[in-house]
Design brief:
Number of helices: 3
Mean pLDDT: 92
Distance between the termini: 11 Å
Low-confidence stretches: none
Largest sheet: 3 strands, antiparallel
Shape: globular
Protein name: PqqD family protein
Organism: Blautia parvula
Structural class: alpha+beta
Oligomer: single chain
Strand content: 15-25%
């Protein structure tokens, strides 16, 4: 996965906002997940097709973080979403 990778949602999840955190339920697997902080922003951004680079760019506009740190965190988050079969 690199900055040019296009991210698309693979499955729709039931998502509820609770005090700034997102609780996601995957009814197919019966598992639930909590997302907080910048993960909320990434989840919101991937609701439509977007590149990894565009996600990084948007987050860097909102957070004071180095590009290296932001890139690492975004890719780590997206790889986890891919492992869970939520994105292509």
């Amino acid at each position: 996965m690199d900055k040019y990778t296009i991210i698309q949602l693979k499955k729709k999840l039931n998502v509820t906002d609770l005090s700034g955190e997102k609780v996601m339920v995957d009814f197919d697997s019966g598992k639930y997940f909590m997302i907080k902080g910048a993960g909320n922003d990434i989840w919101n951004l991937i609701q439509t097709e977007i590149t990894v680079g565009d996600i990084i760019k948007r987050l860097m506009e909102d957070y004071e973080v180095s590009e290296e740190e932001c890139t690492s965190a975004v890719i780590k988050f997206l790889q986890k979403m891919k492992e869970l079969d939520f994105i292509y």
